[in-house]
Structures are given as structure tokens and as C-alpha cells.
Amino acid sequence: MTTPIPTSTSVTESAVIAAPLAQVWHLIKLQDFHKFWSKLEKSDYVKGASPETDVVQWTFKDGTVLDVKQEEHSVRLPLSLAPDSRGTLGRVR
Q1: Which of 33, 56, 75, 91 has the most beta carbons within 10 angstroms of its beta carbon?
Q2: Among candidates 42, 20, 22, which has minimal Cα distance to 31?
Q3: For 41-53, what is each residue's pLDDT tens digit?
Q4: What is the DSSP letter of 67?
Q5: pLDDT tens, 25-79?
Q6: Is residue 30 within 8 Å of residue 56, measured between CB atoms?
Q7: How many other C-beta atoms can be found within 10 angstroms of the C-beta atom of residue 58?
């Protein structure tokens, strides 16, 4: 009996940035990655590529060009905090 080869149609990556949120949040935008990632030459919006999400073209210093689609930003809350029924953060007891 043969088994199918596993495949993926998407890739999810995440990273932890060791810095205070207020110092880096404004940089964590696809179009601004070239400001801190030295491998990027530039990053530009691809206008009209998708009505649902932002698409940014990254041009690397080695000539590689990638179109990157941002689907979401997420923020991790401390485990001791959770929204209540009104959406206000409060301590979990």
C-alpha cells in the first residue's frame, strides 16, 4: 500500500522580536522591512493585486524578487488576561 506524499499550499512563519513593543510595532509592516532587514534592497506595495489584503514586493540585494501577502497581525496577551463579555481585558481567576 502506498501513502500520499504530504504537501502544503501555504507557509506560516512567526518570530519573536526581543524589544519593547512601542519601539518596534511601527516597523512590523511588510513595506517597511527593508528599514531593518539588511538583505532587502527595497519593499513596495503591489497596487491592485488583492482587494482583500496587502501585497508587498520585496526585492533582495541578491536580485531575488518575492511578492508577500500579509494575512494578519496578531498580538499575544499574557495568559492571566482575557477579554470579558464587554471586550474589556481583565484578570482570569
Answers
A1: 56
A2: 42
A3: 999 988 887 777 7
A4: E
A5: 777 788 888 888 889 999 998 888 777 778 899 999 999 999 888 776 666 555 5
A6: yes
A7: 20
Are 22 and 13 contacting, i.e. CB atoms less than 8 angstroms apart?
no
Q: How far, CA to CA in Å, does 14 sit from each of 63, 70, 75?
A: 24, 12, 12
All cell numbers assigned to 60 = 533582495
- pLDDT beyond 90 at 90: no
Let me know: does 59 contact 65? Beta carbons within 8 Å: yes
Cα distance between residue 1 and residue 41, in whole Å: 49
Strand partners, 65: 59
